Amino acid sequence: MFDWIAGFLESGGALAIAALMLLENVFPPIPSELIMPLAGFNAARGGTPLWLAILAGGLGSLAGAWFWYHVGRAFGRLRLRALIARHGRWLTMNLSDFAMAEAWFQRHERAVVFFGRFVPTVRTLISIPAGIERMPQAQFLLYTALGSFIWSGGLALAGYLLEDRYEQVEHWIDPLSTAVVIGIVALYVWRVIRWKPDA
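^ DedA family protein, sequence as received from the core. Prediction below:
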């Protein structure tokens, strides 16, 4: 996959960066931790200028997040409540949990959307509750864009500055990303085991 991404970025320029970052948000197996440092490395070697690589990466990420926002918005709160009532164990949530989570998200939605952009898997999924809760689109796009451009820009800049040693960015972030994903899976399994229906 590494060689394919490297070749695609080199030949496709800014459009390839945007397309891969969109895919990373819609279909997570292609990690931004690989895409954006490579884009920065290519910029250091005379490829797509760094500012354009960051712009393309941020816009691609924003487009992917907006897609999931509209999925959540179309699905809606009533359908989600019905789904929880029917399949609560596998969603690790009962209706009381949902009511508490809903209230918490409504209080902290801006921070959740912003900081969620820095966490693997979460950055894909966080757009769905934002859509379900009908967070104002302008706010959603603003905080998603801020988080996306900081994340994409930081990774691209690291790849640009490290140049030949850009793999160090991946080696540093990859174990952290893997640990977060393992933690999320472990928490999910624990919640499935501990789940109880509403009294």
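The mean pLDDT is 82.
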